[in-house]
Amino acid sequence: MTSPDTQGATESAGRVSRRGLFGLGAAGAAVVGAGVVAANTLFDEPPVAHASSTSDPFPFYGEHQAGIVTPAQDRLHFVAFDVTTSEKAELVDLLQEWTAAAARLTQGREAGAFGAVGGAAEAAPDDTGEALGLPASGLTLTIGFGASLFDERFGLAGKRPAALAALPKFPGEQLIPEISGGDICVQACAHDPQVAVHAIRNLARIGFGKVSVRWSQLGFGRTSSTSRAQATPRNLMGFKDGTNNMKLEDADLVREQLWATAQDGSAWMAGGSYLVTRKIRMMVETWDRTSLAEQEQIFGRNKGEGAPLGKKAEFDLLDFAAKGADGQPHIKDDAHVRLAHPSFHGNAHLLRRGYNFVDGSDGLGRLDAGLFFIAYQRDPRKQFVPVQLSLAKSDPLNEYIKHVSSGLFACPPGVRDAGDYWGRPLFE
């Protein structure tokens, strides 16, 4: 499924940079749980409604997690963890530690209060240091819980949401178990790849002994727009991707299609959303030898402007009944844009924010490249599953793509303030 998209201020400006040390010592830290520094209110700047440039921060606290309707950034580092501790208290402590670190990192600060160079020389640093001097770069960190977390280890089986039901096996998929699933996922998006990688690296460092990395994925060049202020990007097949994506400005649609409610059956997920990931490898060498006319017929759009076939502009309304001079529909019945369209799936929409990837080449010299598909929704059973079933069965694009990884995660509501933490309602 390939379509559906500074805080570099210095101390002299009255703001604390990543490199800045707070000089508060132990008196500046309040402990929440085991070893959690929760004195974020001492360091937090007033939240901003949006990032005015690619260097500025997005607010961390709010009703919903950032990184969902947030205007899609240019870079991604996505990771899935397996929980290795069997103690619920240790898992809760870790989520508290991660939340405190995330609140700092997303504002352009270091992961711990003493940072990379401010602690005792005999101790490991509080931060790995590779982002010293870099601005926030629009970093967002978004967490989700996989179905495997709801087993017998932590007593959470009774709180597993019905919407977190396992995805069906779709025709043609060739999933690799080692790069699928996971107990917990974290999505780091930023405009600077080093900032995104730094954030995931530090969460993994903090989680040592409690979680292990199951798999991860780097991405570049967002493949969807999540705001009308953004131009539509292109995927590695050269086509504009996500023209009809749900946008943050679509308030009624977002409320109806994106955010879970208590009435959906899991009160702890109210204000959260469900995330589906799919790593989709593209057979780019074969695609590159395919005629332009066939490429356009497969997608149902022209390659240059991105307009629906038979129309002139990208955002012209799709007309599946329109016919050309030969009496044939401009957009074929099996065109990708038609098979994925909400009108054929009970008005099911997805908020897509995927990324291109190139992971080197395989042993035959072919690029290991494609789309890391990311989609948020209120209920995958009613949204992603019917759309993907239609595509898997009938899309001629399947000749050029292969699904090799899959993930499904319940992303809880946002963190309200410094006394809150990721997923708190689930553990109460």
Automatic annotation (TrEMBL):
**Subcellular location(s) of the protein:** Cell envelope
| UniProt KW Ligase keyword | no
The organism sits in which domain of life? Bacteria
Q: What is its EC number?
A: 1.11.1.-
Which reaction is recorded as catalysed by this protein?
Answer: heme b + 2 H(+) = protoporphyrin IX + Fe(2+)
Cofactor comment text:
Binds 1 heme b (iron(II)-protoporphyrin IX) group non-covalently per subunit.
Q: Which parts of the chain span the membrane according to its record?
A: 21-43
UniProt domain Dyp-type peroxidase C-terminal: residue ranges: 232-415
What keywords does the record list, in alphabetical order?
A: Heme, Iron, Lyase, Membrane, Metal-binding, Oxidoreductase, Peroxidase, Signal, Transmembrane, Transmembrane helix
Give every Dyp-type peroxidase N-terminal domain span: 65-220
Extract the PROSITE patterns matched here: DYP_PEROXIDASE, TAT
Q: Which family does it belong to?
A: Belongs to the DyP-type peroxidase family.
What role does it play?
Involved in the recovery of exogenous heme iron. Extracts iron from heme while preserving the protoporphyrin ring intact.
Under the heading PANTHER family, the entry gives: DEFERROCHELATASE, DEFERROCHELATASE/PEROXIDASE
Q: What is this protein called?
A: Deferrochelatase
Its lineage reads: Bacteria, Bacillati, Actinomycetota, Actinomycetes, Streptosporangiales
- Name of the gene this protein is made from: efeB
